[in-house]
Amino acid sequence: MPEEKILDDISHRRYNPLRGSWLLVSPHRTKRPWQGQQEAPSKTTLPEYDPSCYLCPGNKRAQGDTNPKYESTFVFVNDYSAVKEEQAEYAAHDQDGTLSTRLLRAEAVTGKCYVLAFTPSHNLTLADLSPAQILPIITAWTRIYTAHLSPHSPLAALASSTTLQPSSHDADVATPNAQYKYMQIFENKGAAMGCSNPHPHGQIWTTTGMPEEPGIELHNLQKYRREQGGANLLEDYAALESDKKERTVFENATFIAVCPWWGIWPFEVMVICKKHKLSLVDLDDAEREGLAEVLAEVTRRYDNLFETQFPYSMGLHQAPLEGTKEEIEASHLHIHFYPPLLRSATVRKFLVGYELMAEPQRDITPEQAAARLRDCGGELYRRKL
């Protein structure tokens, strides 16, 4: 039996070079009975327009502003932002050697948070959209990233030469009053992931500090680059997965979607640019089209897997808005999908017990998950109902 096939049947640990961490894999546990919590299946009968929705065109939002009658994407500053551009000043105490200064550390964080409505339609998720319909979302992400990019970044020259035109609904995307370090673009889909509004939308948070997850990844990307003579970890990994095919969900000329070797969530997917691209502004038209296609394929397969509106958290990791030359050049554009469902539309994976106290653990292997997602291509299930 090939060495990797043995891992389908035995408990083992896998290493994640992107985080420098390990996880436990227990394939035999998929046979255990389940009498625990079950989620309610998600609704699939939302109207195209909801007069009570804060994100639908022409409606009033929670704090009284009225949305324009937008026809494509729509972006605005979050009415309930997690970070703000202006707040009371805070200065940490001098490092005087006391226990308080050693153990009770804090630093002020400022930034700007946006909401991006994907389409005017209240009932069209990414899984419902064609690649052509997803392209405006990628364009909006790129515009917002560009507006906050440091003029000192090596990417600034690329950004200034893009052909992306500003949108008439981008009035809120103004030059920030400070240079922020990082921009996190993400989407929470479904009530199981804490989404408070079913209108398909994502968020964009910019902060003065480097967040923990992309910071850990960037550290390991730089480490790999130094140790491997300038090679890029994710470019190498994409080539390896493209060759092996075992964990590939979908692949086109520019991007590959895989259930990563080190994935924690049962149907976790990572979308990786096959060439070393630093950020969204580093993509040409064909590469943006490739990204739109792979996003359509992944999200549609998710919904087809259990024939439900598949919940997930999705986030882009790319070059920081401001950083050293080494940080920028080591960055690699990729997207994480973290979905909670385990064995059906109603049974989810919980990160508890051993996962919280020791290290992450998964049952279904990435190879098994990828095979099931590969088989879920084709037309979106609800169009056949």
UniProtKB/TrEMBL annotation:
Cofactor remark from the record: Binds 1 Fe cation per subunit.
Alphabetical GO biological process terms: galactose catabolic process via UDP-galactose, Leloir pathway
Principal EC category: transferase
The enzyme's E.C. designation: 2.7.7.12
Galactose-1-phosphate uridyl transferase C-terminal domain sequence ranges: 218-375
Gene3D superfamilies linked to this entry: HIT-like (3.30.428.10)
Pathway(s) the chain acts in: Carbohydrate metabolism; galactose metabolism
Keywords: Carbohydrate metabolism, Galactose metabolism, Iron, Metal-binding, Nucleotidyltransferase, Transferase, Zinc
Presence of the UniProt keyword Ribosomal protein in the record: no
Record text on subunit structure and interactions: Homodimer.
Similarity comment: family membership: Belongs to the galactose-1-phosphate uridylyltransferase type 1 family.
PANTHER family: GALACTOSE-1-PHOSPHATE URIDYLYLTRANSFERASE
Name assigned to this protein: Galactose-1-phosphate uridylyltransferase
Organism, as annotated: Rhizodiscina lignyota
